[in-house]
Each structure stands twice: as structure tokens, then as C-alpha cells.
Design goal:
- By secondary structure, the chain is an all-alpha fold.
- The protein has a domain of 68 residues: Orthogonal Bundle (Helix Hairpins).
- It contains twelve helices and no strands.
- 40% of the residues are buried.
Amino acid sequence: MSVSKWIGGALGWSFGGPIGAIIGVALGSIVDAVSNGGGDVLLGEGKKQKRRTYSSRTQRPQTQSGDFEVSLLILASIVIKADGKQDQRELDYVRNQFSSMYGKERANHAFQLFKGISKQKISKRQVCLQIKQMMDHASRLQLMHFLFGIAKADGLVTSDEEREIQIMAGYLGINARDYESIKAMFYSSSDNAYTVLELEKGASVDEIKKAYRKMAKKYHPDRVIHLGKEHQKGAEEKFRQVQDAYEHLQKELGF
């Protein structure tokens, strides 16, 4: 499959603006391999899409799988380099997550692109502002969850990694309560159940029940169903952690 056909079939809004420039450079590093080896679609579902260019005045389209996938690759490259080195466990986490979501062949193609992206100096502000403009809130929360998973892949979220994720969360329009909720899913603390549910410790039973209903709705897998079934697993993990937090407080407080 030619590169031009892949671009037309795999990407929507992400092939424009600062993200498009990053993709273009990364594609340049693998164009010979793609041209000589052929292969299946690198990203997305391979459906013919009209190419969209990025504009601050563009009405937000529905984010498709390919656009989400490219956003993951770019932001993941920033997190992995945050502590000054690329830990193999973090790289393996990215590859394994993509294999789980998309299958081994497509994941291998995506990882080729990832290597081209990770060699570049990326403006996280420009990239995140494009994502904020074009991607819905539920999908941006899903990005945050994935990024913390990468950072935790080597067993520890370093202060440098956490700082990078927090900066990106701000650019992505993720508020502090949502950020702390997702962050708490990757730390062990007696207060984490409250934080996941966006509550202060000592909240009443009624407040806990109300918060659980709110968070279950916010993190329900159906909120990202438009990204395709391949992203349901990550969404279900966030949803399960909300349920676990609620059940922990039920047991602790006896209600």
C-alpha cells in the first residue's frame, strides 16, 4: 500500500497542523520500507476519509481511531523521554498496548512510526492545543490514562514524568480534579479511593454515592465508543477502577 493511500485512508484531522508536520517527518524515515514492503494500513481502520486541515476555527469533528492513535504515539514519546532516557519497559508497554488494541501487525507498523516520532523535538503545547481543539473530552481523559500507564510501566512514575503529564493535561484542558482522579488510579494510598471519585476524605455516604454515579457516567466505556472497539479495554479499566474505589469505601464505611 502506498504512503499516499495510507494517509487518505487512516487519518482525519490529525494530518494537519503541528501533528501533521510531525507525522510527515516520521513518515519520511520509513517511506522506503513502506514502498518496498507494502503491507496493510498503518493506522486507523483503512476507511476512505476526506483529509481535514487544522484550523483554530474548525468545528470539532468526531475523533476517529487513527487520529487518536497518532495522538497517543506523539504524547507517549514525550512521556518516555521525560526522565532523560528511554526505558525498554516503557517501550515494551507501548508496543504491548498497541498489540492488544490493534493486533500485532498493525502495532508493529505503528511502532515504526513511533520510532520516527520519538527522534523529533516536539512542542507539547502546540500538539496538545491541537488535540484539545479537535478531540472530545472523554477521549482526552483516555489519553491521560494511557500516559500514566506508560510512566508506571517501569514500576515508578518519576517526578519528571508526572510533571510532563501534568503540563500536557493543562494544555489538553483537563481540569485538576479529573487529572488527580486519573493519577490516583496509578498510586497506592489509603486516600486514593476518595481521590478517584473526586472527593475530599471524610465525605458523607450520600456524597460518595452521588460522586460514584457522576464518575461512572464520566468514565463509562460508551463515552469513547466512537474510537472503535480496540479502545474499549482501556476505557473499561478506568471504569473498573471507579467501581473498585466505590466498593472500597462501601467496605470501609459499612454502607
